[in-house]
Each structure stands twice: as structure tokens, then as C-alpha cells.
Amino acid sequence: MSLIPIHPSAKALIFDCDGTLADSMPLHMKAWEYSMKKYGLPFDYNFFFSKKGMKELDIVQILIEEEKLNFNPHEIISAKHEYFLNNISDIKPINEVVEIVKKYQNVLPMAVVSGGTRKVVYEELKILGIDKQFNVILTADDSIKPKPAPDIFLQAAKELKIQPEYCQVFEDGDLGIEAALQANMIVTDVRNYIH
Questions:
Q1: pTM (global) more than 0.90
Q2: Residue 45: domain span
Q3: Alpha helices in 68-150 (DSSP H)
Q4: Structural domain contains residue 2
Q5: Separation of alpha carbons 55 and 85, rounded Å
Q6: What is the 8-class DSSP label of residue 148?
Q7: pLDDT tens for each residue of 15-45
Q8: 100-113 b/e (C-beta count within 10 Å ≥ 16 → b)
Q9: 3-state class (DSSP) for residue 62
Q10: Same structural domain for residues 128 and 164?
């Protein structure tokens, strides 16, 4: 029995990926640090950590604007992906959440909603052994307004054919929680359950 409760009115489950299903935030931070150093830029852990859940392109554009930098954001992101994918075997499952996915496969429809790119998210799910369990996977590559806007969660509900108020969201990021609440969904902050 999972320690994370499933709400009695939940008819669909929606999961964030990084920090929720995958213990990948340490690797993401190392990858950001690598890409920053590669371009001779200072790495601010708190800046990047506070932006988790956002699209990488948006994060880099904020950084470029705030620091008045003259860099191609796509090159910085490409360097980050290179490091991340080369070290992806370092990620581990967040067992308390992955257990829910395995328990509710073919019981409730499920989706992944991530600010990561499709390639990275699919690779992470593959490493975790849960790449076939989801009815819907939405990423930064889908042209949907990202978290903290509710749009990506509402799109997942629409594709799952379940009203938003019957969707239970599992999130670890403040921006994702804000988005899911705006979408009028049942929200579970997994940080309260994982050790």
C-alpha cells in the first residue's frame, strides 16, 4: 500500500517527471553547471533550482535578460542536454511515486506533464522502466503554455477525457503546484512524502 494517498474522487493521475517520478534534480543541476561553465558563465544553484518545472528555454532567456548576456540560449541548452543524456544512468526512481504508477497502470488513466524536452523525458521514463504506462505524455516540445500556467495540465485532462476536478496531480515544484491548483485539480505535493 502506497503511503501517498489517492484521493477518493480521482479518476485520472497526472505526474510531473523531474523530482516527482525521477530523482533527477541533482543531475539537472550538474548539467546546468556544466553548460554554464562551458560558456564561462557563473552558476547560481538557487536561481536554477527555483525555476524547476519551467521550460529550459524560458529559464535561459530569464538568465540572459537579468544578466544582460549575449548568448544563444539554444547552445546553452544543447550543452546541458549533452551532459544530462551522457549521465542519464545516474537517475534513480522516486519509489514512493513510481509505486503509484505501477499500482494504477490499467486501473486509472495516467499522464506525465513536464517542463523537460520530449527526448529527455522519454529517456528518463525508460531508465525508470515506466515508459509504457502513460496514456499521455506532454513536454516542453508541445506548443502549450507551460507551468505555472494551467494550460498543460488542462490539455492532459482533455486528452485523458477526464474533467480537471477529477484529476490528481503529483508535483514537487512550486510552479507546477500553482499550475495544477489553477487548473482546479486535486494536488499532491510529493515533497511531503518522499525522504
A1: no
A2: 25-88
A3: 73-86, 95-104, 118-128
A4: no
A5: 17
A6: T
A7: 999 999 999 989 999 999 999 999 998 899 9
A8: bbeebeeebbbbbb
A9: helix
A10: yes
How is residue 155 written as a grid cell?
A: 490539455
The secondary element (H helix, E strand) that includes residue 188 is strand 186-189
* Closest to 158 measured CA to CA, from 169, 149, 167: 167
What is each CA distance from 177 to 20, 51, 117, 163, 172, in whole angstroms? 12, 13, 19, 18, 7
β-sheet bridge partners, residue 93: 22
- Give the angle 16-22-26 at the CA atoms, nearest 5°: 110
The model's pLDDT over 49-108, given as tens digits with 9 standing for 90+, comes to 888 778 888 899 999 898 888 889 999 999 999 999 999 999 999 999 999 999 999 999
Backbone CA torsion sign across 151, 156, 162, 164: negative
- Is 3 inside a domain boundary? no
Q: Which of 59, 65, 64 is nearest to 46 (CA)?
A: 59
Say which CATH number the domain at 97 has: 3.40.50.1000
Residue type present at position 40:
G
